[in-house]
Design a protein that fits this description.
Elements (H helix, E strand, L loop, with lengths): L3 H4 L9 H11 L9 E5 L5 H9 L5 E5 L6
Parallel strand pairs: 1-2
Helix pairs in contact: 2-3
């Protein structure tokens, strides 16, 4: 069973439903919260950010924190 992930593509520019759903589920309780604040860890391909922006009110604040190697 552990080798299933070696054969299946989980996320890509074509397959990003899991990222979309992550943001939708996480942001759903905040949909009616004025000025909601959300932190997303890592930009990746940006699908989670896009889905969060769709799910949140227009005045929400979404911050993306990306770890970059120093040096």
């Amino acid at each position: 069973a552990s080798d299933v992930y070696k054969r299946q593509e989980l996320m890509s520019t074509r397959r990003h439903r899991s990222e979309d759903r992550l943001a939708e589920v996480a942001c759903a309780p905040l949909a009616d919260t004025p000025g909601a604040c959300v932190l997303i860890g890592g930009l990746g391909l940006g699908f989670t950010l896009r889905a969060a922006l769709r799910a949140l009110p227009a005045d929400a604040v979404v911050m993306v924190a990306e770890l970059l190697p120093s040096g």
